[in-house]
Amino acid sequence: MTKPPLTLYLAAPRGFCAGVDRAIKIVEMALEKYGAPVYVRHEIVHNKYVVDDLRAKGAVFVEELDDCPDDRPVIFSAHGVPKSVPAEAAARQMLFVDATCPLVSKVHIEAERHHENGLQIVMIGHAGHPETVGTMGQLPPGEVLLVETPGDVAMLEVRDETRLAFVTQTTLSVDDTAEVVTALQARFPAIKGPHKEDICYATTNRQEAVKAMAQRAEAMLVVGAPNSSNSKRLVEVGARAGCSYAQLVQRATDIDWRALQGITSIGITAGASAPEVLVNEVIDSVRAHYDVTIEQIETAQENVEFKVPRVLRETA
To answer: Which of 6, 121, 219, 294 is most buried (CB neighbours < 10 A)?
Structure first.
């Protein structure tokens, strides 16, 4: 039986960003240097495949520091942690390695600088997401107020309307965030913001590629985890940019083929914590159903690299 023809658009850039790459490398190098087990507080990055792979190598994933013994190394995830976590680790004389993405750390430093200047901070982010929890936890309670939508801005109760600054989670939708920033600036004209929004280069680039792809692809598959903020945003961006069907899939087995019946083009991208091996698995699965022609849609080139902490570069 001949397979129906299909154009497969591949978004570039897609998948791993420099911060995720670095975080995974940190766990692997710690295992090499200290042997197993190495403890990791929270999923190092939001991807089951990556976490399972590191678990097989000897990483133990826990939610809190209480679940770690004092005598084994512990690694903090790429999303960042509240100040209280390294303080507790230091008090217990634990060996800890911080895998927080440098672009998240940059937001932490920004929030602290505004706080030192006597400003109250408004954070644009998703409640409960580890990155938001980590950023808000850099400062004392009440110093960072969280908003998710323009509606939240209207309800804000601040200490002093003239002494405010805002920061954002790094993995948000660029367009949604712009709406919230506009609402903040309209209500609080004196509010200080970052020179350039805090949304990271990788999030921005992946969303731009999806927008370009959405003009051409009838359906879109985003490879990523359901708890991955940047992956979920790619689905939303694709749908908003005009792609009539956009689905988040963790693995090829998640693809809903019935929903794709009769289409002639599919776009594929991957969130910043999804490895390329899973993208290839999805492509192979599409090839099994269709006679595929692949076209790459490239909107940017990335060559960012972050160094791992010195403690891991030094030989034992």
So the answer is: 121
CA pair distance 256, 289, nearest whole angstrom: 12
Q: What proportion of the chain, given as a percentage, has pLDDT over 90?
A: 97
Q: What pLDDT digit, counting tens, does each position of 253-311 carry?
A: 999 999 999 999 999 999 999 999 999 999 999 999 999 999 999 999 999 999 999 99
> What Å distances lie between residue 106 and 82, 110, 197, 266, 308, CA to CA?
14, 6, 11, 36, 16
Give the confidence band of 316 by pLDDT, cuts at 50, 70, 90: low
Single-letter code of the amino acid located at 48: K
Residue 197: the pLDDT is 77
User: 199 with 237: CB under 8 angstroms?
Assistant: no
Any bridge partners for residue 295, and if so which? 9
Q: Do residues 15 and 274 lie in contact, with contact meaning Cβ atoms separated by under 8 Å?
A: yes
- Note the pTM of the prediction, 2 decimals: 0.94
Residue among 31, 130, 146, 18 nearest 76 (CA): 130
Q: How many CA atoms lie within 13 A of 198 on its CB side?
A: 30
Give the three-class secondary structure for 109: helix
Q: In a 3-state reduction of DSSP, which class is residue 22? A: helix
Neighbours of 141 (CB within 10 A): 7
30 and 213 in contact (C-beta within 8 Å)? Answer: no
Catalytic sites, residue numbers: 131
Contacts 24+ apart (CB under 8 A), 261-264: 263/6, 263/218, 263/219, 264/4, 264/5, 264/6, 264/7, 264/218
Structural contact between residues 10 and 294, judged by C-beta atoms closer than 8 angstroms: yes
C-alpha span between 94 and 69 (Å, rounded): 8
Three-state secondary-structure class, residue 130? helix
CA angle 216, 218, 220 (to 5 degrees): 95
Q: What is the DSSP secondary-structure string of 57-90?
A: HTEEEESSGGGS-TTS-EEE-TT---THHHHHHH
User: Cα 199 to chain center, whole Å?
Assistant: 10
Tokens of 26: 């940190």
